Amino acid sequence: MDLLTGILATTFLAGGVLALAAMGEVLAERVGVVNLGAEGLMAMGAITGVATVAAVPSPALGFAAALVVGALFGMVFAFATVTVRANQVLCGLALTLIGTGLANTIGRSYSGTPSAAVFERVEVPLLSDIPILGPALFSQNVLLYLIYIVLPLGLHYLLFHTRHGLNMRAVGENPAAADAGGIPVGLIRFAYVTAGAALCGGAGAYLTLAFVPAWSDGMVAGRGWIAVSLVIFAGYRPVNAVLTALLFGLITSIGFVGQARNWPVAAPFLSMLPYLGTIALMIVPVLAWQKVRRLMAAPAALGEPFYRDVR
Amino acid sequence: MLQGLRLQRLPSVQPGIALAMRALAIAIVVLAASIALLVAGEDPLALGAQLVSATFSSTFGMEDFGLLVIPLILTGLSVAVGQQIGTWNIGAEGQFLVGAFAATAVGLFVPGPAWLILPLIIAAGALGGVVWILVPTLARAFVGVNELITTLLLNFVAALLVYYVSTGPWRDRVGMSNSSTPRITVEMPEFWGLIHWGLPIAILIALAAAAILAFSRWGYEVRLSGSNPSAAAYAGIAVGRHIITVMLLSGLIAGVAGAFELAGTVHRLQGGISNNFGYLGIMVAVLARNSCVGVIFTGILMAFILNSGIILQTQGITTSAVLAMTGAILFLTAIGDELAHYRILRTASTRA
User: pTM of the full predicted structure?
Assistant: First the structure.
């Protein structure tokens, strides 16, 4: 593979982790719940993936197990934030601590050894022979097609072209009005916070089963937080979330290439790029185009609990 | 719902109920951990007794415990101060690291007598903390960018920076370790065993912050801006300017914590110097309900939990497990906080 193909292939691979988690976060935030536990959910998903394939060497099963674990943690989080209406910021931070701590505790016995099974590349006939683009786009693992094509288009359709999607957005924008209109606010919030958490768990498993195929302490390394910020930058839209994730995949990829080619920049500085890039991306667009603010506005009831009985 | 009983949500919480809820949260987590230990074939009661005796009946235990209290009070204070105006400084970890980094720069490369260098080290730490929160502060005040995520992402950058200098250019080339800098030339004087003057100073800083917030005009305006920004702005208070000073102060305190940890406890810069103090500070502040005096007590409580974790490590329980436990306490605290808002009413009518 030449340089450009290598960069592109890594971009898609690295962006996939962020895209999956960011889409999960879009789901939760669209119905009005900020889940700052993405980092912890990804850690749990990552170790679940590794532990599952160590027992049964099937990456699909590992990925499914991570989805389930993510959903379980998501239900606990949804119980706290939607049912009890506890502070979302605190619960999210707590979930990150719990997930990271648990994953590192469970992960001690898996540390350092490569994942027993990983998602293999699938070569799409003919298309993978296209120069430069072919190997990067059509010689990837099967999850990537799910992440880049099926999920974003499916979620976009769900959110913006179905009646149910309209209900979801209503719950995030104005839960009181939605409630008055007979939409089950609590149920919808609970369901999509759980579904979003499942996707975050899946993103963790993608990390250990496709991208960096081994478990190590602290390997999620802030990707959950980057995913949370990408959602803001993506204006809470699934397709945009994938595009911004790709941008970040590119930044990560450039860092990798720099290390591999011995650029005269120390490796830790190249590793800083995704974090600094995220911060820059959160600030620059708002500075440059004031209008962006309204266009990309968060759901109006984001982060606010809904009390039906208190009027 | 039961006949004649109704739940009512109150807008405010009585301190007594809130305190009880926090105690309950900790008790539930300790109970859950005990059950987990029982299942794993350990005796939780014996372990608990061992924890208390290991901490309080030996000089070593008291020293370790006291040294942990210092950074936890300060990082907790850092988060609590930010919360006064409603900002979340989740970046105390990064400001702590950069504070320690800046303090190391002075400690390693500025020659001079200790009475001059020591204040310089602490000033450098404070400056490091301020520099590290500067961009999130300006972004929040002028562009409206959520500080929660920007401060947090800078933690990772700070960790990479400290990792780079302590294993790279500032690496100790003489000593046996090649993952830390050489020992800095001056250190904080100690007053009891290994416990240095950072402890009383940290307590004084917390009391001073509480006093300034409670009694000064600035503190009044900050608290008003925090509880109701629009009312404060309407009353002519420069809310944006207060956000800047409060956030910079928050970073400064975390930076000082890093300088104290370096000059008083660890004496050399290394990757793990932060020991999650920044993240645990969030816990300390939340448990203290963002009271600057309260963080002194919750800092001590957190230090005991953390120290227990270190003692438990000899029993095969890791710091990660302790991190998960603190997360669980935080989680239950958040739930308990909300439940504390409710009271059960008896109603005459049977309409449930």
Answer: 0.89
